[in-house]
Structure formats: structure tokens, C-alpha cells
Amino acid sequence: MFHISDDSRADFEDFSDSDSSEPDSPIPRVTFNAGIQQEEDSDNVSESCQVDQSDLSSVKNRIETICGILPNLKSKDGENLNRKSLISELQKLITIYYGYSEELAEYFLKNKYSQNKKDLAAALIARGANVDPTGDWTKEGLVVHSSQVPIGATPEYLAGHYMLQSAASLIPVLALAPEPGERILDVAAAPGGKTTHIAQLMNNKGVLFANDFSKERCAALVANIHRMGVVNAIVTNYNGLDLLGVLPPLDRVLCDAPCSGLGVISRDPSIKVKRTLVNLRQNADLQKKLLCKCIDMVNDKKGGIIVYSTCSVSIEENEEVLNYALRKRRVKLVPLGIQVGSPAISSFRGKSYHPSIANHARRFYPHVHNLDGFFVAKLQKLPRNGKRDQPNKTESVKRKKHVAQ
């Protein structure tokens, strides 16, 4: 993310965690999740199991035990265990059992397509960048206020240690909450900021379909996927409306729909004169069709998730689109799971929208949240015998009157 500000340069100490028992916070977007990272030593270090290193069966069992403990360190059973000591023990056991050098064992234990947040902050500050954490609403990312060198041309960038995008672009992916092993679609993926973020949260496990209608934009998408070390992505070049039947049933879909861009006028002032009301209506028609297609591609038996987002602040491209989808498909809106943003609009010019839209969808404004203008909503597909959210009474009455006419 790249923001220009007159703020004073951040000190590296600002990125130190106050609680040394927590892992280093993730960082993509100037973004990526840290892989297995070492923590500071603490007083609560469990005694490592004594393993007969000459008994390879015992060594293997201990390796499997540690691998089972590490993902659950934040749970109650693992709260007194120290990650650093376990990682160190695991590294030594790998050298014994598999015969690797300590250097290679350490390499295998680290996420090679991600970067520790504090290390990256230190590297960028050393190159003359003025950086800060993204905000209180997420531990991911850094905001770059200014830099003495091009942030998109540093050795760290070229090595795939970070991705440049707006801070608001983190929100749809965080709301999507991808899980390793799932089948996920980013329906309008280029140039790849959200795609690589999704892959990171999937730990490069599962299948990520990254689609874009433009062949030229797909070239940039592929380049960023390779640069960021993503290995679980399949790039497709389809009209998003034609993907139904091409892909298998999906667990989650990110529908970051093509829009007017009215939320990013500060970065592209030409939008003020290029966009027309006809454009808004055309965009809205496409967005309604695209969102419904995305809903149709999600597995209803698993309660699949669809996140709808735009970088527009127009009601036609946001609340109107959601209202349409709630009428036409068996879905419900659910909370984003992120504590930021303003409630979506509940009514406009005498028309009331489904009450769940204002309850769960969120708007983001530059002058309020210091983010690009954005709209994000999270929908869950209902099983065929599930109970649909009912429209509010005002909307229901209006629709009946319209039918009567």
C-alpha cells in the first residue's frame, strides 16, 4: 500500500510486539502472512521431551508430535509452550532423521513466500522509507508514507517479499477468510494483489482459481503470482459470467467487481469527468449478473462464502446490487469479522433495502477511515431447504403494489 504523508519517520521499535508470547504479526501489502516465525524467549518454556537420537522411530514420533503442537499454540493446551524452543528442537530432529544440514532444515521450516513484518519494516526504513502499521483493525501490512527509493523496485519487492496495494484492498480478503485446502475463486483477479493475499492465507494449499477477462491484465497477474512464490493458483482468462460449469463447486468466491471507481478519485481525478450515469447503470447490471453467477458457483451444502466488493461509493453499484442478490438467490448476509467501516445505507430516496444490508455490509470513506472509498459485503449460501432472510415490510409492500399495477 502506498500513501503519501508528512508524518515523521517511524522508528523500528514501533513494530515490536508488547506481548512476546504472540507470533510476529503478518505483513503483506507493502502484504503477506508470516510463516513459521520465531518468538522472543519467555519464562514459560516447556521442557522438551527427551528423545533417544539413536532411535529413528522415536525421533520420527517426536517430529510428528511437534508438528501437531505448532498449529495449536494459541489454544488452551498450548498456551504454556514456547514456539522458539519447539522450532529449534524440530530443526535439530530433522537434521538427524532426514540427514539435512542445519541450514537446509532451517530453510524448510520457513515460509519462503512471506516475510516477517518487523524484518521488512527494518529493511524499508534502512532504504529511506517512512512506514507505519496499517491500523488498529488489522495486524497485516505496512503503510508507506514516503520513500527515498521507488517502493516498487526494491530488492525486497523484486524478491516477492511484499505486494503494493491500497490498505482498503486488504479488507475483502480478510472478510473472505480463506482456509488451506479449499477451492477458491478470485473472479476479477488482475493484477493479483488480492489473489496473492488469498494464497498466502491458504498457506499455498488447496486450489486458487485466479480469473480475469483481460488477456493483457492476465500477464501482470501471472507475473505477480510468480514473483510472490504462489504455487497453488490456476490462472484463467474467461468472462466471469461464463465460468459456471467450467470450474468445480467452490468453497469461497471473491467478487471484487468491475466498477466506476468513484471511491478512488483521489488517485485518478479523470474519473470525475469520464464517468456518466449511464456507466453506473451499466456497471450495476453487470455486477448483479456477476454476483449471482458467483453465488451459483459456490457449494450450498457447505454454506459457501461469497465476498462482494467495489471501489465505488455509489448506491447503484453496492446496496442495489446486494438487494437484488438477496431477492434472487438463497443467500444471507453475515458479519465481515473486521471492526472497521461505516454501516451500509438502509434506505435511499424512499426506497428501503433489506435490513441485513445495513447490519452487515460496510462502507469505507477516505475522509472518515483514511482509506480508499470502498464497499464490502459477505454473503453465505443457504442450503436448498434453508430458511431465507425475508425482505422488510416496506420493500415487500412496494413489490406487491408493483405487481398489482
UniProtKB/TrEMBL annotation:
Residues 1-12, 386-397 have a biased composition (Basic and acidic residues). Residues 13-22 have a biased composition (Acidic residues). It comes from Babesia duncani. Keywords: Methyltransferase, RNA-binding, S-adenosyl-L-methionine, Transferase. It comes from the Eukaryota. S-adenosyl-L-methionine binds at residues 188-194, 212, 256. One of its GO terms (molecular function) is rRNA (cytosine-C5-)-methyltransferase activity. The keyword Ubl conjugation does not apply. Residues 96-382 form the SAM-dependent MTase RsmB/NOP-type domain. This is Bifunctional S-adenosyl-L-methionine-dependent methyltransferase superfamily/SAM-dependent methyltransferase RsmB-NOP2-type/Nop2p/RNA (C5-cytosine) methyltransferase. GO terms for biological process: maturation of LSU-rRNA; rRNA base methylation. The active site is at 311 (nucleophile).
